[in-house]
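FAQ

Q: What does a record look like?
A: Structure on top, sequence underneath. For example:
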């Protein structure tokens, strides 16, 4: 029990410290967040310190750059992790970014200046963060840069995991780790109580009182469990120091962030011995009250069937939502789903465990009455008489398979906000912040295949009711590159109205009406703004825009040759397109950042914060799966060892009676495989139903997922094979006389 508690407490501490690690990440992000001057109308002046934040995707990881300009004679506040703000031409980078620059020299274009220092741990969310402070002069920052009031916020601008996803993650980890962990600790305590029951009964028969017998059991139980809890906390503390240096994909932390707090220590050092005492108390009380029954090894009582009552309402809830999904109804809007689905999932999981004993006994009775095989009859009669031992063997692995389906559902629901599945990737930059030379050089970046400009028509003011349309400036070849199907009937040099069958028709786009667009024109006195009018033709050109794409919802195609000479759109987006392979996207983003370091580059359809969160959630769920697998395997190993100890007398009797080795081995395998197969089959079916009900009520686009089913089925078959092989060494042929039953 001490070793089992040590392993269980180590896993428990790992799960309980995950929220602390995420909270430390968010607190550091909040402490360094730059805050603009607010509250009054503040015009930017030369005496102000101004800042500009840019965040770009580097794979699935955000790359954050903070451009700062401050007066030479001023000493504005500085964020944690650095002693002072960088001057113009100076750059402060995180340690991970310094390493990345050595591996990817192309990133240097995103950091104009000379690297003069490194950001300390107090100013970073983790050792793997890509973060930089870049000093610039006031004239080098665009007008969108805001006056700096200071650093620090009450909340993180981009949390590691948002609150709604964190609740889902806690629920999934609870099902993956905490439920099997509770079963495992209960199994360890139950087996320890079984081993002490005969000795406690002997003490009772020798004259020790009932209270004295229970006190002996309590002291032994708590002492062994407390020793295991202390060992488990120590094992986790050492593991935290090691894994903090390695980290998980998307999530790395500093060792102090993962050290157990006082609350975690209290839970681990008190809850585990308390659970062990509570589980062992029943068996100890039976030994104290009925010592003769325990000493003589009276057959245990059959399992109660009331546990199956939990399975029925749980399956009723999740099956009800599955039926609503089949009928095409969307129950995600109602608040009841947020309560009923978790309750149904928990009831189903508990019902699977409690119903496994009665189901195994009933099935074993039916098989034993119909089979002609001696080995199968021996195995089924043993499961019929004593299904509780089979329950201890199978429970942990059954819960693991059931929880794995839920984890798959969480990943499927989060996947629809990740990187788009299109074969192409678009990039949008503010057209007004780019010069003609920058546009030409951007078109020449390796990987860029096409360019275009998207702009909205001019309206007098933001609250105006004047109709507005969106125009794209491109020729027919560029239009074909940006659409999924090459349009038919496109004519170069002619304005054409665009329609998309996948998009609703814009009521503001009225054929025959003229719409003004603002254009910048250079003259001897600077840049002046003029209006360029486009009349919407009645004939339309049908296109099929990619999803997502800046071309989705465009109303009119304007050829570049029709724009007035020397003029360009005053506002809008400069669009580029490349293939969506990760290497190509990384190359294009590096090239764009080098040409326009302060420009806001949007990878259309790519939510870098969501990508980062999905990476973190996947890593934590994978860690939960590993912990759950370790707990399930440990529970199986402990229970199998206990079964081997219990079955020594039966095996000795069978060997003495002349049973063949093949018969004994087949009976042992069948005795283990029946409850495990029943439980795993139920876990697969119930897990898929629970996953589907979760997806249906989650509001996502995917309600039925079959991608993870083959892998889960293969893993289930592997569990059965491993359990069968593990039961073979327990059927030794040696006959020990002391193990032969003499009653």
């Amino acid at each position: 029990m001490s070793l089992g508690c040590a392993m269980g407490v180590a896993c428990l501490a790992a799960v309980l410290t995950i929220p602390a690690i995420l909270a430390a990440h968010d607190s550091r992000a909040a402490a360094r967040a730059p805050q603009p001057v607010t509250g009054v109308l503040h015009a930017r002046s030369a005496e102000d310190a101004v800042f500009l934040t840019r965040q770009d995707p580097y794979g699935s990881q955000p790359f954050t750059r903070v451009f700062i300009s401050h007066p030479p004679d001023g000493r504005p506040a500085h964020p944690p992790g650095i002693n002072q703000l960088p001057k113009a031409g100076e750059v402060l980078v995180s340690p991970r970014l310094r390493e990345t620059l050595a591996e990817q020299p192309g990133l240097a274009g995103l950091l104009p200046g000379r690297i003069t220092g490194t950001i300390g741990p107090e100013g970073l969310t983790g050792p793997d963060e890509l973060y930089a402070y870049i000093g610039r002069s006031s004239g080098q920052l665009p007008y969108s840069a805001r006056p700096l009031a200071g650093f620090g916020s009450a909340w993180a601008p981009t949390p590691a995991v948002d609150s709604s996803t964190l609740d889902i993650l806690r629920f999934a980890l609870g099902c993956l780790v905490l439920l099997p962990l509770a079963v495992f600790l209960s199994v360890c305590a139950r087996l320890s109580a079984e081993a002490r029951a005969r000795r406690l009964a002997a003490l009772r028969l020798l004259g020790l009182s009932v209270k004295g017998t229970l006190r002996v059991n309590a002291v032994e139980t708590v002492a062994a469990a407390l020793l295991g809890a202390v060992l488990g906390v120590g094992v986790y503390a050492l593991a935290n120091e090691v894994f903090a240096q390695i980290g998980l994909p998307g999530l790395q932390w500093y060792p102090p962030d993962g050290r157990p707090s006082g609350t975690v220590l209290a839970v681990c050092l008190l809850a585990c011995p308390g659970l062990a005492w509570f589980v062992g108390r029943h068996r100890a009380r039976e030994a104290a009250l009925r010592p003769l029954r325990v000493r003589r090894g009276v057959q245990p009582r059959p399992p109660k069937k009331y546990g199956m009552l939990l399975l029925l309402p749980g399956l009723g809830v999740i099956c009800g939502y599955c039926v609503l999904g089949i009928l095409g109804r969307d129950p995600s809007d109602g608040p009841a789903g947020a309560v009923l689905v978790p309750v149904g999932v928990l009831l189903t999981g508990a019902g699977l465990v409690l119903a496994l004993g009665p189901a195994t006994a009933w099935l074993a009775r039916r098989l034993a009455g119909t089979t002609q095989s001696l080995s199968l009859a021996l195995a089924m009669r043993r499961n019929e008489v004593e299904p509780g031992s089979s329950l201890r063997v199978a429970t942990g692995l059954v819960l693991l398979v059931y929880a794995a389906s839920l984890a798959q559902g969480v990943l499927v629901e989060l996947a629809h906000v990740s990187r788009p599945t299109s074969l192409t990737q678009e990039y949008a930059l503010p057209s007004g912040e780019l010069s003609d030379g920058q546009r030409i050089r951007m078109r020449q970046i390796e990987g860029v295949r096409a360019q275009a400009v998207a702009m909205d028509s001019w309206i007098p003011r933001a609250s105006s009711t004047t109709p507005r349309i969106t125009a794209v400036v491109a020729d027919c070849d560029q239009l074909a590159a940006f659409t999924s199907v090459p349009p038919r009937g496109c004519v170069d040099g002619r304005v054409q109205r665009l329609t998309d069958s996948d998009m609703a028709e814009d009521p503001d786009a009225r054929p025959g009406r003229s719409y003004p667009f603002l254009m910048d024109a250079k003259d001897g006195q600077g840049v002046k703004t003029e209006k360029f009018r486009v009349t919407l033709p009645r004939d339309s050109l049908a296109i099929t825009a990619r999803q997502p794409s800046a071309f989705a919802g465009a109303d009119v195609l304007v050829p570049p040759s029709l724009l007035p000479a020397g003029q360009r759109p005053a506002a809008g987006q400069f669009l580029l397109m490349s293939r969506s392979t990760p290497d190509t996207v990384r190359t294009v983003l590096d090239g764009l950042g080098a040409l326009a370091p302060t420009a806001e580059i949007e990878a259309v359809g790519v939510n870098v914060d969501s990508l980062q969160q999905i990476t973190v959630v996947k890593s934590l769920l994978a860690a939960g799966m590993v912990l759950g697998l370790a707990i399930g395997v440990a529970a199986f190993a402990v229970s199998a060892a206990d079964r081997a100890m219990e079955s020594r007398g039966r095996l000795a009797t069978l060997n003495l009676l002349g049973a063949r080795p093949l018969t004994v081995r087949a009976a042992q395998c069948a005795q283990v495989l029946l409850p495990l197969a029943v439980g795993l089959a139920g876990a697969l079916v119930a897990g898929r139903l629970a996953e589907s009900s979760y997806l249906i009520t989650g509001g996502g686009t995917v309600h039925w997922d079959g991608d993870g089913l083959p892998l889960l089925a293969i893993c289930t078959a592997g569990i059965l094979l491993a359990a069968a092989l593990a039961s073979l060494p327990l059927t030794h042929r040696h006959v020990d006389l002391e193990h032969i039953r003499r009653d």
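Q: Is there anything notable about this one?
A: The CA atoms of residues 382 and 680 lie 20 Å apart.
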